[in-house]
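Re-run with default settings, no changes from the original entry. Doing this only to confirm the output is reproducible before filing.
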Amino acid sequence: MNDSLPISLPWLRRCRRALALCCLALVPLSLPGQTPEGSLEVRNASARLVNGVYYASARIEYRLSADAIEAMENGVPLTFELQVEISRVRRFWANATVATLRQSYQLSYQPLSQLWLVRNLNSGEQRAFTTLFAAVSDMGRVSDLPLIDAALLEPNQTYIVWLRVVLDQQQLPGPLRLLAFWRDGFSLESEWYQWTLRD
């Protein structure tokens, strides 16, 4: 008596296809020692006090990978998150976080109009550009971003501002999010840039 269950041919094909995709995802896309093609960098940042409110300005360089550009050209928008943290310096304890800020930008390509769109997801403001270079250049100029009301800060204390930008992989479509886990082209984030908040 044969107790084994019959294996259907379509099921076997699906298993082979899934295994092939997994193997493809595990294949390294660059040689050891090479750096990822894309990168993000905060070149400089500062803050100024105007009418009792601190405003930040920054210059960010977006060098997108071929994977990221190809995804946009195929209709997938990319979301970049500007992350800001303000901490109070403490002498004998870890610094205390007093404020955090998240500003999100969506970069997309419209094949019919052949335009690149930059949309501020916090304000809804949207701008169109004829080239990707112009779009990322605009996205990299942060001007007068409200940080914190000076009244919320204690006098005679030192405060540090930390700023970085990351590609938000959680906003990618499901299948691409899984692929992004294995591909360096979607692992885009800058180092933290820090400076002291002054009057």
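Strands lie at 39-50, 53-63, 78-88, 96-110, 115-120, 126-129, 141-149, 159-167, 193-197. The domain at 40-197 is CATH 2.60.40 (Immunoglobulin-like).
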